[in-house]
Amino acid sequence: MEHFYQLGWTLDSAGGASGEAYMAEQDGRKLFLKRNSSPFLAALSAEGIVPKLVWTKRIETGEVVTAQHWKNGRSLMHDEMKSNRVALMLRKIHKSTQLLNMLKRLEMEPMYPSMLLKKINSSLSRNVLTHHVIRKSLLYLEEHMPNLNSAFYTVCHGDVNHNNWLLSEQDELFLVDWEGAMIADPAIDIGMILYTYIEPAEWCDWLSKYGIQDTLDLRKRMKWYTIIQAIAMVEWYEEKNRFQDMNEWLQFLNDVLMMNRFI
Fold this sequence. Notes:
Phosphotransferase family protein; Kinase-like_dom_sf; Aminoglycoside_PTrfase; CcrZ_PhaseVar_Mediator
């Protein structure tokens, strides 16, 4: 990012797993800069899902840098994930034909359950596969694969944990970090929110806020996708040698398997 230093900007890392994001400041003006963002960012900005896109530039290295308004704020707390605003924002994303058309123009193909299962099976290490909960989970995934007509597939975020929800000081709500965006069954997002943040007794109420009926088919699909995402988290933490976090996800995975055990 030497280009921006030469133009008189000060840059500080904005964190994130990729190391590609920065807070840039010049003459009291702050921007959020990111290298190699997807063109999908422009559509998200236009929909008000992420902070407003200010410009996109190709710099001397050939990299594309995007600039968004910097928003002072914080991540949502666990209890805030059950709010109406989260449900309505997620519904807006899942119902957006503009976002869906953009991903299709970028030639993204739908992510079917069989593809997700193949991907997770090919990525698991021998150490992760030694856990009986993982083996039991993989068997469940094989035996209960969802079957939803792809005509109902939508734009999904794929990682809707509370740290990716930004509440600005102006009380604006955004969903950020769209690197894992996909065209998929919306239950992939809904399930993780319900299983992670909301008591089962409140699921029906939250789904009503979102605008969908609580059906047996939906519960089956939510459970399947939550299991496969939890396995991916176990693998990720094992790779990082963060074994306490890995064990917490193994416990979460076992809890999900035991909940609604007859579906």
